[in-house]
Amino acid sequence: MAACHRNWVLDSRIELFNRGWWMWGRRRQRTLWDITSLLHPQEAGRLPEPRRNTCHPPADGGETHLSDRSPDTAESLRRILFGGTFHVFNYEWRRSFFQFRELNSELSFALDADRGGARAIQMVVQARIIKHLLFGRQGGSDGRMLHSLSEVGQRDQDRALAAALSDSLWLAGQEVSATVTLVTEDYCITPHLDYKLDNFTEKLQLFTFNEKDDLRKFILDHIQCFKEERSHGVILFLYSLICSRTVDRLKEDLDSTTSHLLYLSLGNFVCRQALLNLLLTGKASPHVFNGTLYFGEDGLNLECPLQGVLSRSDVGYLHWSREQMERDRLPQVGSMLKTPMFPVWVCCINGSHSVLFSLNRSLLSDWKMEHLFHLFYYNGQSSQRTVTRLTVDTHSHHWEASSRDTDRDPEKRFPSLEMTVRTKWEGAAIDWNDTAPFY
């Protein structure tokens, strides 16, 4: 009798174990069901309701989606970012988030962006923050004074950040829909053995919106997920960007020169031009020239056309590299990026990213404004305590005949920031207004 009882208990435990394993499998199947439909829209279907223990979608609008029918989703994210599934974000990336400088300071509008490869993303977001603070406020004029940026409070910071993130995601979603990724406490996928866990990507929960205002409100309600320390805020935004664009569209955007969005440089993952263009224009074009290039330098048809920028961006892009110039390999940025809708530019200067902006929106629409004007420069580094003001004179044409000509150091003779400005305003004389030239 005792043996029969022991066997009954053992059988019962096995049954409970099997039933629990089966229920886990069913739960996993439901949880994994449909992130693929976001990344691969041709497989889209009706999605289950999300678990609401951590993140809550808005009550009105904002359709919510959960993860993947298979581990392929996390692998798709890894492949489009790194080109493989075994790479993970390093320490600097994981620590990167959208942190504003101290309140009640000259730089209360500015993000702190000291860290590595994520800085390019932070500076594009910074450009859109400036756009919203200068030109997007209700009742604001085209020429808001610089001191208005130093009067930004925490609520203004949050709203501007939410608006900036929303702009990028909405563009990536072709101004039809956008997806926000947040992190839950539970694992949402169980990946294959050849996938390297990072204990982060496996916990994503996705929320998709069909109205931009719902998207912005949702991000504002969850703004701490992007601006708090250890929030992985930059990576979350990057995942949101990819899911908004979808992997299928990203593959169509790229050409034979680019297969993924990040590359390894000096031990850190760095943004390719395609990712910058995705942030700026909503499309991951690998090149900065206008349109599509069908012919090579030899005049012959290219087997695979090269994809450039097809539409004018809201904030612009300028590029200059001393090394590329000396090798005669400096890319020529087209007018779609050089002449944006608002006078704010992301600058890539010797591989480092920063922002230039003007207070006068008419600078881009009235040629008379380009004779003599001011630009303001911010590089994202904590060592910069105030914005740098440059006075640009496009009529003097004496920029090469300065006292610096006798200096043998090419950077002191021709500071890289000045050379970057001249890619837009050729031959301009630039006054640093008593600031020691840098870059």
UniProtKB/TrEMBL annotation:
GO terms for biological process: protein K48-linked deubiquitination; proteolysis. Residues 78-434 form the Deubiquitinating enzyme MINDY-3/4 conserved domain. It comes from the Eukaryota. Residues 45-71 are annotated as: Disordered. It holds the Pfam family MINDY-3_4_CD. It is an enzyme of class 3 (hydrolase). InterPro entries: MINDY-3/4_CD, MINY3/4. The keyword Transmembrane helix does not apply. Residues 62-71 have a biased composition (Basic and acidic residues). Keywords: Hydrolase, Protease, Thiol protease, Ubl conjugation pathway. Its EC number is 3.4.19.12. GO terms for molecular function: cysteine-type deubiquitinase activity; K48-linked deubiquitinase activity. Hydrolase that can remove 'Lys-48'-linked conjugated ubiquitin from proteins. This is Ubiquitin carboxyl-terminal hydrolase MINDY. It comes from Lates japonicus.
